[in-house]
Amino acid sequence: MVNAGDMNGSGNLMDFLDEPFPDVGTYGDFHTIDWLREKSRDTDRHRKITSKSKESIWEFIKSLLDAWSGWVVMLLIGLLAGTLAGVIDLAVDWMTDLKEGVCLSAFWYSHEQCCWTSNETTFDDRDKCPLWQKWSELLVNQSEGASAYILNYFLYIMWALSFAFLAVSLVRVFAPYACGSGIPEIKTILSGFIIRGYLGKWTLLIKTVTLVLVVSSGLSLGKEGPLVHVACCCGNFFSSLFSKYSKNEGKRREVLSAAAAAGVSVAFGAPIGGVLFSLEEVSYYFPLKTLWRSFFAALVAAFTLRSINPFGNSRLVLFYVEYHTPWYMAELFPFILLGVFGGLWGTLFIRCNIAWCRRRKTTRLGKYPVLEVIVVTAITAIIAYPNPYTRRSTSELISELFNDCGALESSQLCDYINDPNMTRPVDDIPDRPAGIGVYTAMWQLALALIFKIIITIFTFGMKIPSGLFIPSMAVGAMAGRMVGIGVEQLAYHHHDWIIFRNWCRPGADCVTPGLYAMVGAAACLGGVTRMTVSLVVIMFELTGGLEYIVPLMAAAVTSKWVADAFGKEGIYEAHIHLNGYPFLDAKDEFTHRTLATDVMRPRRGEPPLSVLTQDSMTVEDVETLIKETDYNGFPVVVSKDSERLIGFAQRRELILAIKNARQRQDGVVSNSIMYFTEDPPELPANSPHPLKLRRILNLSPFTVTDHTPMETVVDIFRKLGLRQCLVTRSGRLLGIITKKDVLRHMAQMANQDPESIMFN
């Protein structure tokens, strides 16, 4: 027997893996990253850069560039996300109006832009200008009458169908991952899951284009959720340009958290709300450094959008409102009622939508995504056109519902009976009796509300980009505006009632119906998503209604309480569970009294755990083990008899190491001994060169004892982002618990199907 180190040239062979080789440390598709390992690798990289920076000026400059790369990435994300959002807003505005008519002076102008440029537009007829023609005027030279209405109706449906068909075809052919909201998958990716291509360049391009098409088609969906996906695609693209982020999945997720904040910033014109949304709703790991960078990315994105000025009002949003009367304590009661409505709507929507999506996945319906989109678009367009509140874009509808009725408003909702003797300032119009227009608007809004509630259930989750924020806000805004008008008329006709007597004198401007619409919108959005803090901040940034934070808070908290009473899951968590993603929600509580030994594998009656020994297995043995099993890694023990734990080796890195060794070194054959120790084992003189793989061995895998409560194990997995955890007793290996095992156990304890967790 001779020491392998004495063999001629073998020192080289044993140590070649001490140098990095391609793809080591990367993960396969649909696998979970090891947060602890990524953190450790980044610390090592940072330590190396710091020590090298003292060697020369060039190394010092490189260390500065490395430190600033994070801020550069944030700047680039903000610029691109803001630009894309501005382009999407302008394109949606034009294509939505294209369904009804065209601008003769420049076909790329929307209705509003067309009338801005016209010198013949009067204030009274500001929505009508000679340069803008409806399709019936252009084609048959008729603007009124049954034939003109039918032609406009038909072309409205045809435009909607063509937009929707083009969108679903592009998604299906070029980027299947561009469908849906994207937020459930972003949450899962940020928790450490790998979905290759989900944030790719094709997904970014197709999602941007199809988002314009589907919103313009008039479907009951919004662009806000998909804009978060678009911003995260921008973040993924720019992080791939810097090795600091491209080679470390943990660091990449810090960039994606900030990108999500930039996405909400441009979606709502709410930079602070965006940062809070990322923190409260989507991020899994959010250190203080990421908070600052998210703030910077959201700021740059908002600034870029403001520079483009897509709405032409020098604001970041379409919904900016200014109310001229304060709210009163007695109004908290209707605000809380709107919160209850929001919670009930959220529960109804989640249950019905998940039931429909499950049916889509498990029946033949899922095989015809194009047909489904066409049918839903046709139904939406046919029912939406006759009602002026469903015909227009949902953003314009919300904007009108939020508006206060000033002297210059021409909306039906502001058709009150004026007192001819009124001589008051324009901004302080007293409460007045409702005219015929208001009553007409009320029943039209009631029909629109029922339609929106039903159609949104079937629209969200189709194979097209579809956001949920705007439809949810529209449902709440319609309900809120109706409640607001009801309270306003009650206060006008019964101002002597005790609840109105103290604060609503005759001739005073007491109730603002637009405020009720705003509160209702917040309540319904909160009921569906279960957001609270970020929701309130987004709503007051969205509307500029800083004075109305308390009503918004009351409605948001009430809607969350009511919705939580029926089920803790928001819509995004429900879709994560429906898709079987391995997402360990920090909000879930585990209170069952089980132990690690109850969950670990192998269980009784199962074959023993597949392990590697530190210095007695050949390359062929390891290759056979890899071929016969599909495990993501293998514990390494001293020997199969002692089962003393040494470390843990990842499957992917074993495959890459053996492949590289065979390609780059002579003498490595199938019966070469593989060893994970510092010193080589003693081998017979004629044996082939051994292969040293200590570099790929994790020498400090996370371990728990077999009597550790599962409550503690779940907490460890959640807070440390573990991929797997080894179970030992007195240093001897007993079994392994993976993230999937934890999720299946939690599902089992909650009387759910444990097999619904599909991925590793």
UniProtKB/TrEMBL annotation:
It is found in: Endosome membrane; Membrane. It comes from the Eukaryota. Keywords: Antiport, ATP-binding, CBS domain, Chloride, Endosome, Ion transport, Membrane, Nucleotide-binding, Repeat, Transmembrane, Transmembrane helix, Transport. It holds the Pfam family Voltage_CLC. GO terms for molecular function: antiporter activity; ATP binding; voltage-gated chloride channel activity. It is a multi-pass membrane protein. The keyword Repeat applies. GO terms for cellular component: early endosome; endosome membrane; Golgi apparatus; plasma membrane; synaptic vesicle. The chain crosses the membrane at residues 68-92, 153-175, 195-215, 227-243, 255-279, 332-356, 368-385, 441-461, 468-487, 515-540. CDD domains: CBS_pair_voltage-gated_CLC_euk_bac (cd04591), ClC_3_like (cd03684). Belongs to the chloride channel (TC 2.A.49) family. This is Chloride channel protein.
